[in-house]
Specification:
Distance between the termini of chain A: 52 Å
Order of helices and strands of chain B: HHEEEHEEHEHHHHHEEHHHEHHE
Radius of gyration of chain B: 23 Å
Order of helices and strands of chain A: HEEEHEEEEEEEEEHEEHHHEEEHEEHHE
Largest sheet of chain B: 7 strands, antiparallel
Number of strands of chain B: 10
Helix content of chain B: 40-55%
Oligomer: heterodimer
Shape of chain A: globular
Strand content of chain A: 25-35%
Structural class of chain B: alpha+beta
Shape of chain B: globular
Number of domains of chain B: 2
CATH topology of the domain at 235-372 in chain A: Yope Regulator, Chain: A
Number of helices of chain A: 9
Radius of gyration of chain A: 23 Å
Structural class of chain A: alpha+beta
CATH architecture of the domain at 235-372 in chain A: 2-Layer Sandwich
CATH class of the domain at 235-372 in chain A: Alpha Beta
Number of strands of chain A: 20
Helix content of chain A: 10-25%
């Protein structure tokens, strides 16, 4: 057996036990990992400017995480969870001993896929880019990996995934473990609910001031107002989230990227997205037709009683849909009624999968949360 | 031996005439809507779309769009738009027909949906006037009948459904029918030859040009309706889709060529006819559109590069196909339509190199003549940048 083969990191089985989780905001999705049972390390660009984020647990439940600290220049952030998690906390190595060709693995949620591991080597342990040092790797980095750990053979975090070059193949970068440790250590000694690390002197900024109290640097370019004030909500997002609130859905837990939401209404999965500048789509995959009663089922689905909602079949999946025109959101004569319509859609989706299964012999959709069906099917 | 040229034949389809629409009326409608005068806003929308009719909505307003009859009415503050589609067949065919409606007509992202009224499938849209922004109504009125037109013949042929309240279709006269049969045979022979070239070249760019030509030349030349049009569009959904595997695109087109070459003349005759459109089913032919496809830009540069490097067939087909695309899918002022046809007639039967050069020159003149003085848009000249600037967050 060659040296390189003995250097192979522990294989993928078991990564589910590692404390690596997907983070959702109204800007996108990313990855975070536990540095303490109730603290996640991730990238600043994954969470900012949101102050509350969704964190998806292994059982697909989402919990709210509170952004406590961000370091825009080093692209790091710490998110606090409401309760400690059982998965393994990852140790962060200070990365002084890293060498080129050393095998590493990247763990995260690339392009929204379930927890995945990709392998590669360190291409450069201390690459200088934009006056900062990065760990350069050839391991595949994809959208959704941001904020995830780059681990060595002993499953120590040697860097935090941050970006890649789009103009080259296999050139990805991580924030060195030493910087991650410094950021985490600094946080441990602070009590502020929320703060931003000054890019010049690394002092903690607790309010949105133009100049750093410690070093006097002009912070105008940081747009601290956005960090401290939280994300500006797009009018379309505000409309959707009014509807979600009406249906008792926490918008923070439903956000799934820009103008995109995904969540459950009881047993029914709901997706909301803006398919173009004119339309906002609401959809729920409810069930699949059984082998009997197809005529009555299809007649029921096409019945006019469901308007303004409608059913369609995507392959063999029965979906409930609602389309809202952009003009409605900005100029509707009765906005409250429109918000009610969103809430009614969410409630109807939860009811109708039960009806389709109970009355028409349909089969639950693969996405259906079976334990929430009325019959417990 | 490979295909050496394409033949232009004057179309049997009547030219799509761009109707002058008064967009100020649409703006007025938006202002009235915002001011709470929704009924008047709705009337202005109809006056904008149907300047010759000026419906006041005191009674239901109906118009013909292809084979569809569209009715607009306002009752008790609610605007209803409906297009009857088909009556379901008796027996087992009804389940397949219903499944087809659910799979192929209904879906996300459209404001109207198919509903069942007894055994009748009807495309419907309803909204309170206080939620009916003029742009929403325009979208419904433009898109709904087009969808109905796409499906009624197909459902009749495939499932034995009975079309409902169809608008009359004027059959082709004897001379037109004879010419249509000639165009039909010639077209599919040419597409067959082009597909063989595509198989030899294995170039996705060339395949895109072949598949585009297969659809647009036919849609320009023949007044397709009946069952052939939905079949063509169904196959085009695969062979004209750049996201589909090229091999699958090629086999789908090959299958369609064989099927349509073997189409009995009487069935072809039943699938042709002149229809009336109260609203132009085509896009507005604008100077910008003309310039974006045959004026200076990346697409034209690519064609010129092909011509300069000996790929005359690629260049010639691209130019001819683009002319057909412009004619088939847009309504132009009469002089632009005539000029586009003149270009095709001049290139007809010419060897590829000559046809490409001739049309490139013709296109430049055409754009010069009809494109106005708009400044060039340089927005797409993105800086390539160096590596460090291209670093992209992996979020």
């Amino acid at each position: 057996m060659s040296d390189t083969e003995t250097d192979t990191p522990t294989p993928a089985p078991g990564i589910e036990q590692l404390g690596v989780f997907q983070i959702f905001t109204g800007g996108g999705t990313g990855t975070g990992f536990l540095i303490a049972p109730n603290l996640l390390m991730t990238n600043c660009h994954v969470v900012a400017p949101y102050r509350k984020v969704g964190v998806e647990l292994r059982d697909k439940r989402r919990v709210v995480g509170t952004v406590r600290r961000i370091h825009p220049r080093r692209d790091l952030a710490i998110v606090e969870l409401g309760a400690p998690l059982d998965e393994a906390v990852l140790a962060v190595a200070r990365s002084e001993g890293l060498r080129s060709q050393q095998k590493v693995s990247i763990i995260g949620f690339p392009v929204g896929l379930p927890l995945s591991l990709t392998e590669g080597v360190i291409s450069h342990p201390r690459q200088l880019l934009d006056e900062q040092h990065f760990v350069q790797t050839d391991a595949a980095i994809n959208p959704g990996n941001s904020g995830g750990p780059i681990i060595d053979a002993d499953r120590n975090v040697v860097a935090v995934t941050t970006c890649k070059l789009t103009s080259a193949d296999n050139v990805g970068f991580g924030i060195p473990g030493s910087d991650v440790c410094a950021f985490a250590d600094g946080f441990a000694g602070q009590t502020a609910e929320f703060g931003v690390i000054c890019p010049s002197c690394e002092a903690l900024l607790e309010t949105a001031e133009r100049y750093c109290d410690s070093c006097g640097s002009d912070l105008e370019h940081l747009e601290l107002d956005a960090y401290f004030g939280g994300a500006d909500i797009h009018p379309v997002a505000a409309f959707v989230e009014d509807g979600l609130a009406k249906a008792d859905i926490d918008p923070v837990l439903a956000r799934h990227g820009a103008l995109n939401w995904s969540f459950y209404s009881g047993s029914a999965p709901i997706q909301i997205w803006s398919c173009c500048s004119d339309h906002l789509c609401f959809q729920s995959a409810l069930a699949q037709p059984g082998k009997q009663q197809l005529g009555p089922l299809f007649r029921y689905l096409l019945s006019a009683e469901h308007a303004p909602f409608c059913f369609d079949l995507d392959d063999n999946m029965i979906r409930l849909s609602l389309t809202v025109h952009a003009s409605d959101i900005f100029t509707h004569g009765n906005p409250a009624e429109l918000v009610e319509r969103v809430a009614a859609f969410i409630a109807m989706a939860d009811r109708l999968d039960d009806k389709l299964i109970g009355d028409y012999g349909c089969v639950p959709a693969p996405q259906t949360r079976l334990s929430f069906l009325k019959e417990g099917k | 031996m490979g295909i050496t040229s394409l033949t232009y034949t004057p179309p049997i389809r009547r030219d799509a005439v761009g109707r002058e629409l008064d967009y100020e009326l649409l703006e007025q409608a938006s202002e009235l809507y915002a001011a709470g005068e929704q009924l008047e806003a709705t009337r202005r929308v109809l006056r904008h779309l149907f300047p010759d009719q000026a419906p006041d909505l005191s009674q239901p307003f109906a118009f013909t769009q292809g084979s569809s009859r569209v009715t607009v009415r306002v009752d008790d503050g609610v605007c209803f738009v409906s297009v009857p589609l088909v009556r379901l067949p008796a027996g087992g065919g009804s389940v397949a027909a219903l499944r087809y409606v659910l799979q192929s007509i209904n879906g996300s992202g459209q404001l109207f949906q198919a509903r069942l009224r007894g055994d009748d499938v009807v495309l419907e849209f309803a909204d309170k006037l206080d939620g009916l922004h003029p742009h929403k109504l325009v979208e419904v009125l433009r898109r709904m009948p087009v969808e109905a037109d796409r499906h009624d013949d197909w459902m009749e042929r495939q499932f034995g459904a009975t079309p409902l309240e169809r608008a009359p279709i004027a059959p082709l006269d004897g001379g037109e029918l004879e010419r249509a049969a000639q165009i039909w045979a010639l077209h599919w022979d040419e597409v067959d030859g082009l597909l063989k070239e595509a198989l030899r070249k294995r170039s996705v760019w060339f395949l895109n040009e072949v598949t585009g030509y297969a659809v647009h030349r036919l849609r320009f030349a023949l007044p397709l309706c009946g069952s052939v049009l939905p079949r063509l569009l169904e196959a085009a959904g695969t062979f004209n889709n750049a996201d589909v595997d090229p091999r699958k695109r090629e086999t789908t087109l090959a299958k369609l060529i064989k099927e349509l070459q073997a189409l009995p003349p009487d069935e072809l005759g039943r699938s042709l006819g002149h229809v009336e459109h109260a609203l132009s089913p085509h896009g507005d032919g604008t100077p910008d559109k003309l310039a974006s496809l045959i004026g200076p830009g990346h697409y034209r540069e690519t064609i010129e590069k092909y011509l300069a490097t000996g790929y005359s067939l690629d260049a010639g087909l691209a130019m001819i196909g683009t002319y057909y695309y412009l004619l088939a899918t847009h309504a132009w002022p009469a002089e632009v339509t005539a000029a586009l046809k003149d270009g095709l007639a001049a290139a007809s039967g010419k060897p590829w190199r000559e046809a490409a050069g001739l049309l490139l020159e013709h296109a430049a003149e055409l754009v010069e003549r009809f494109s106005g003085d708009d400044d060039e848009d340089d927005d797409d000249e993105a800086d390539a940048g160096d590596g460090a600037d291209d670093a992209e967050a992996a979020q």
